[in-house]
Amino acid sequence: MEENKKRFDREALMDILPHRGRMLLLDSAWLEAEDSAQGSYRVRGDEWFLDGHFPGNPVVPGVVLCEIMAQASCLLLGQALKGKNAYYAGIDKMRFRRLVRPGDQVTVRSQLVRHKLSVYVVKAEAWVGEELCAGGECSFILT
């Protein structure tokens, strides 16, 4: 990562995102450019969403991967997010290609596709190493 890219740890992310406690699903995130961001999360194995999903075969639920991608993508909303919350308006063309398990380091890559008024559309992908786990478009509305 280049020196001029600002990295946000969990504490700094709480200044941007409203998520707290167990719902803050990023360890860190950073802006690559004005229209692209990345985030990361290490699956420890003791997360609430693994309890019962599935006994003896823990797998991160797809909806949780979508939330991890959404949280990283919110960095792209920048100043427009100040004093507002971003809510999902849609998830399009999302495909799940690889299981994510305890010990995996998930890296999210997000690209701003377009925005109009208070609606933002991003292309987001979740990777473990060189393997694509999930990807699609996420739409958010700011309120």
Feature tags:
single chain; 143 residues; mainly beta; 7-stranded antiparallel beta sheet; 2 helices; 7 strands
**Coarse structural class:** mainly beta
Sheet with the most strands, sense and barrel status: 7 strands, antiparallel
> DSSP strand (E) fraction?
35-45%
Average pLDDT reading? 94
Shape: globular
What's the end-to-end separation, in Å?
33 Å
Rg? 15 Å
Helix share bin = 10-25%
Q: What is the ordering of alpha helices and beta strands?
A: EHEEHEEEE
Tally of individual helices = 2
Give the strand line-up of the largest sheet. 1-2-3-5-6-7-4
pLDDT < 50 runs, ≥5 residues: none
The beta-strand count equals 7
What does this 3D model show about the protein?
This protein is mostly beta strands. It is 11% helix and 43% strand. The chain contains 2 helices and 7 strands, in the order βαββαββββ. The protein has a 7-stranded antiparallel beta sheet with strand order 1-2-3-5-6-7-4. A hairpin with a 2-residue loop joins β5 (105-116) and β6 (119-128). The longest helix has 12 residues, at 62-73. The chain is globular, with a radius of gyration of 15 Å. The model has no long low-confidence stretch (mean pLDDT 94).
